[in-house]
C-alpha cells in the first residue's frame, strides 16, 4: 500500500502569474494561513489527497528572481533552498513568457524537480498566439502543462504530473536545459563551485546557483560565511573571478549574467510561441491607451479611487446591522446577569469595545473587495505606473500608493504588510513609516464623532475631505523629509510589469478580501479585548468610598475622579492644557494607543460615568453640551489624533517589518507624538488668537 505518502510541493512564480488561483483550485477549502517563523510574511499551505498520496502545497510569495531584492523574494528563496520541497511548480504567465522564464532559469540551478505550468493560455490565444508545450518540454527537460486557472482548466493535469514525476525513479536526475553563461564565466563558476562544496556553511546551497549569485552580486557572500574560517579563500577567489570577468566584459560584467539568462529565455520564446495569424483585438492595448494616457491617466486614477470609496458606502446597512447585533447581545447579557462588576465588565468593557471595532468590519470588507477587484483586473499595476511621477516627487515609489490606499479607511497594519511588494528597502521603510498617518477605519470613527458634533450638516463632508487631504499632506511631507535626510537616495528605478487585463474571479476577490479583513479582526480579537478590559478597570477602580450623603449621580462623578484614569488625567492635564485639552481627553488619547477607535469608546465611558444623569443622550450631544469643548478644540483634537503615536498593533508590525530596528521604532513613536503636540499647539494658539 502506498497510502499516506506525503509529497511536498511548492508553488513558485512571478506575482500575478495565477499562483494563488491554481493553489485555490488545487486545495479547495483545505488550506490555512500561517506565518513564516520570525517574520510576518504570510505562509499559505493546503493539501490534497490524490491517488493515495497526501500532497501538501505551499503558495510562495510572488517573485521575479531568486536574487531576493524584496523580502517576499527572500522568503520564497529561503523556502526553496532550506525546506527542499519534493517538487516545485513554476507558474508562468504565458502572455509574459520571456520575463517569467527568467525565474525558471534560476530555478533550474536549484536541485529540485520542476513542473512548468503555462497559465493564461486563454489570453495568449486571444492575442492570436499558441504555444507548443511538447517543444517546450523537450527543450527544457521538464514536464509542461497548460492551464487556464481561472476556469479550472488543466488543474487535474497538474496533479497527475506531480504523482508521475514523484513516482518516476529518475526524479532526481531530471535533465534540464541550463543557461550557458559562456566559457569565461563558466571557468570562474567552476572554481567557485569547488570551494563552495568544501565549505560547510555554503555546501547546503546548490553550488552552481550560489556561485552565479555571488558573481552577480545577488547574494552577499559575507552574510553567509561570516562564521567560517574558510572564508578568506573563497573571498579571494571571488574577488579574482570578478576582476577576471570584468576584464573580459568591461563595465558590463554584472549585466552579462542577466543578459545571458534573458537571451536563453528569448530563444525559448522564439521557438515555442507561434502566431496563429488570427489576431484578435488587443483589448489590453486599447484600455492602456486610455489608462496610461498622459492627460487621462490621473483623472482615471482619481475616478477609480472615487469608485472604491463610493463602493464602501454600500456597507452602511450592514454596519448598522452589526451595531444592532451588539446592542442586542449587550441586552441579553444585562437580562441574564444581576448587577455586578462582571456584568459591567462584559457589557461596558468587552462588548462595547469589541463591538465598536467590529462596526467597521463591513466597511473594510467592502473596501478590500473593491481594491482586490482593481488589483486582480490588472489596473493597480497601471495606477502605480501613473502615480509614479507624483510619488517620486516625495521620494516615494509608484508602488507605494497601494499600501497607503489600504491604510486609508482600512487598516495601517494591512498597509504596512503590503509594502512587502516594494523592491528597495529604502522605499519600503518610507512607505511603512507614513502608512499610519493616513485616516484609517479606526480614526474615521473619531473624526466622524467630532465633526458631527461641531459642524453644521452642510459642511461636514467638506471638513472631512479637508481632513483627508491634511492626512495625505502630512504623510507626503514626512516622506519628503525622510527621503531628503535619513533616507537620502532615489526611489528604485521603476520596473513594474503591466499584466494583461483580466476579469477577476469572484472567488479570488472574496478570498483576498477575507485574508486582509480577518487580519483586522484578529486584532479586534486580541488587542482590543485586552485594551477594553484594561480601560474598564482603570475607570472602575479603585472604588471611591460610599458616602451616604451623596446622590447617585454625585457618587458616580466622584468615582470618575477617584479612579486611576481620573487621577492620571489630573496629572497629565498640564501637558494637554496648552493644546486645548482637559484630563478626560488626555485619558482618551492615551487609551487610543491601544486602538484608535478606543478613543471614542473611552470618551463614551467617561461621559457615561460623569454624566450619570440616566438620560441616555448620544455621545455627540453630551460633548456638545460640555462647555470645555469648542469647534477649535475639536479640530485640534483631530489634528493631534492624526499625528500622534500609531496604535500598538501598527507599532509592533512596523517594528517587526523594519527588521526590529529600535532606531526606527523610536523615531516613529517619539517623532510622531512630539510633532503632534507641536502642530496642535500651533493650531490651537493661533486659533485662540484669532478668537475661533
Ligand atoms: P498570483 O499573484 O500569482 O497569486 O496570481 P492570482 O492567482 O492572484 O491571479 C491574478 C489574476 O489573474 C486574477 O485576477 C486571476 O483571476 C487571473 N487569472 C489566473 N489565471 C488565469 C487564467 O488562466 N486566465 C485568465 N484569463 N486569468 C487568470
Ligand atoms: Mg497570490
- The percent range for strand residues is 5-15%
Strand order of the largest sheet: 2-3-4-1-5-6-8
The helix/strand class is alpha/beta
Q: What small ligands are held by the chains?
A: guanosine-5'-diphosphate, magnesium ion
Rg from Cα: 29 Å
Q: Low-confidence parts, pLDDT < 50 over ≥5 residues? A: none
Number of domains: 4
Distance between the termini: 84 Å
Largest sheet geometry: 7 strands, mixed
- Count up the helices: 31
- DSSP helix fraction: 55-70%
Mean pLDDT: 83
The global form is: elongated
Number of strands: 9
Provide tags for this entry:
alpha/beta, Rossmann fold, binds magnesium ion, Helix Hairpins, seven-stranded mixed β-sheet, 4 domains, 692 residues, two-stranded antiparallel sheet, 9 strands, binds guanosine-5'-diphosphate
Question: TL;DR?
Answer:
The protein has helices at 19-27, 71-83, 97-107, 121-126, 133-140, 155-167, 183-198, 207-215, 221-225, 231-249, 253-272, 283-291, 297-313, 316-336, 341-358, 361-377, 379-392, 401-407, 412-418, 425-434, 441-454, 457-484, 506-540, 552-562, 564-576, 583-591, 597-611, 619-625, 631-643, 648-657, 662-689; strands spanning 5-13, 31-35, 42-50, 53-59, 87-93, 114-119, 129-131, 144-147, 273-275. By secondary structure, the protein is an alpha/beta fold.
Amino acid at each position: 500500500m502506498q497510502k499516506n505518502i506525503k509529497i511536498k510541493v511548492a508553488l513558485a512564480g512571478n506575482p500575478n502569474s495565477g499562483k494563488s488561483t491554481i493553489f485555490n483550485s488545487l486545495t479547495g477549502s483545505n488550506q490555512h494561513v500561517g506565518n513564516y517563523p520570525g517574520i510576518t510574511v504570510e505562509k499559505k499551505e493546503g493539501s490534497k489527497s490524490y491517488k493515495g498520496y497526501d500532497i501538501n502545497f505551499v503558495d510562495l510569495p510572488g517573485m521575479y528572481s531568486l536574487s531576493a531584492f524584496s523580502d517576499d523574494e527572500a522568503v520564497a528563496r529561503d523556502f526553496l533552498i532550506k525546506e527542499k520541497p519534493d517538487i516545485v511548480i513554476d507558474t508562468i504567465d504565458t502572455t509574459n513568457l520571456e520575463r517569467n522564464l527568467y525565474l525558471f532559469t534560476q530555478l533550474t540551478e536549484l536541485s529540485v524537480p520542476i513542473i512548468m505550468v503555462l497559465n493564461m493560455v486563454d489570453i495568449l490565444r486571444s492575442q492570436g498566439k499558441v504555444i507548443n508545450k511538447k517543444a517546450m518540454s523537450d527543450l527544457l527537460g521538464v514536464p509542461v502543462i497548460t492551464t487556464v486557472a481561472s476556469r479550472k482548466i488543466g488543474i487535474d493535469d497538474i496533479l497527475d504530473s506531480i504523482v508521475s514525476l514523484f513516482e518516476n525513479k529518475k526524479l532526481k536526475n531530471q535533465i534540464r536545459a541550463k543557461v550557458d553563461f559562456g566559457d569565461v564565466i563558466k571557468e570562474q563558476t567552476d572554481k567557485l563551485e569547488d570551494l563552495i562544496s568544501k565549505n560547510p556553511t555554503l555546501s547546503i546551497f546548490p553550488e552552481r546557483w550560489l556561485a552565479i549569485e555571488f558573481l552577480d552580486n545577488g547574494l552577499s557572500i559575507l552574510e553567509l560565511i561570516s562564521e567560517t574560517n574558510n572564508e578568506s579563500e573563497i573571498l579571494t577567489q571571488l574577488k579574482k573571478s570578478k576582476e577576471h570577468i570584468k576584464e573580459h566584459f568591461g563595465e558590463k560584467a554584472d549585466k552579462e549574467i542577466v543578459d545571458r539568462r534573458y537571451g536563453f529565455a528569448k530563444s525559448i520564446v522564439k521557438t515555442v510561441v507561434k502566431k496563429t495569424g488570427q489576431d484578435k483585438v488587443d483589448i489590453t492595448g486599447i484600455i492602456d491607451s486610455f489608462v496610461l494616457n498622459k492627460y487621462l491617466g490621473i483623472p482615471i486614477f482619481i475616478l477609480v479611487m472615487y469608485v472604491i470609496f463610493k463602493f464602501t458606502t454600500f456597507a452602511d446597512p450592514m454596519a448598522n446591522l452589526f451595531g444592532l447585533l451588539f446592542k442586542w447581545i449587550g441586552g441579553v447579557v444585562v437580562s441574564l446577569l444581576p448587577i455586578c462588576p462582571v456584568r459591567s465588565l462584559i457589557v461596558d468593557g468587552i462588548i462595547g469595545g469589541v463591538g465598536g471595532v467590529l462596526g467597521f468590519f463591513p466597511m473594510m470588507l467592502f473596501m478590500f473587495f473593491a481594491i482586490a477587484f482593481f488589483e486582480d483586473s490588472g489596473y493597480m499595476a497601471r495606477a502605480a505606473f501613473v502615480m509614479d511621477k507624483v510619488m517620486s516627487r516625495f521620494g516615494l515609489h509608484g508602488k507605494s500608493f497601494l499600501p497607503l490606499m489600504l491604510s486609508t479607511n482600512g487598516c495601517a497594519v494591512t498597509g504596512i504588510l503590503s509594502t512587502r511588494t516594494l523592491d528597495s528597502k529604502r522605499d519600503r521603510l518610507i512607505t511603512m513609516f507614513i502608512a499610519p498617518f493616513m485616516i484609517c477605519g479606526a480614526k474615521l470613527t473619531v473624526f466622524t464623532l467630532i465633526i458631527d458634533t461641531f459642524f453644521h450638516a452642510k459642511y461636514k463632508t467638506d471638513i472631512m475631505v479637508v481632513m483627508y487631504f491634511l492626512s495625505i499632506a502630512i504623510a507626503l511631507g514626512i516622506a519628503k523629509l525622510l527621503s531628503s535626510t535619513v533616507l537620502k537616495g532615489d526611489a528604485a528605478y521603476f520596473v513594474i510589469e503591466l499584466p494583461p487585463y483580466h476579469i477577476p474571479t469572484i472567488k479570488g476577490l472574496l478570498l483576498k478580501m477575507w485574508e486582509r479583513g480577518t487580519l483586522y479582526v484578529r486584532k479586534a480579537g486580541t488587542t482590543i479585548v485586552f485594551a477594553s478590559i484594561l480601560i474598564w478597570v482603570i475607570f472602575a477602580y479603585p472604588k471611591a468610598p460610599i458616602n451616604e450623603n451623596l446622590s447617585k449621580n454625585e457618587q458616580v462623578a466622584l468615582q470618575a475622579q477617584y479612579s486611576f484614569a481620573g487621577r492620571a488625567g489630573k496629572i497629565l492635564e498640564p501637558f494637554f492644557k496648552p493644546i486645548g485639552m482637559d484630563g478626560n481627553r488626555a485619558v482618551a488619547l492615551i487609551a487610543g494607543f491601544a486602538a484608535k477607535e478606543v478613543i471614542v469608546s473611552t470618551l463614551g465611558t467617561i461621559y457615561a460615568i460623569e454624566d450619570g444623569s440616566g438620560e441616555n443622550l448620544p455621545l455627540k450631544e453630551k460633548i456638545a453640551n460640555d462647555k470645555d469643548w469648542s469647534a477649535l478644540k475639536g479640530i485640534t483634537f483631530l489634528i493631534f489624533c492624526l499625528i500622534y503615536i500609531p496604535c500598538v498593533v501598527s507599532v509592533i508590525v512596523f517594528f517587526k517589518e523594519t527588521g526590529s530596528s529600535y532606531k526606527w521604532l523610536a523615531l516613529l513613536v517619539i517623532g510622531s507624538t512630539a510633532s503632534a503636540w507641536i502642530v496642535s499647539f500651533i493650531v490651537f494658539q493661533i486659533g485662540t488668537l484669532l478668537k475661533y
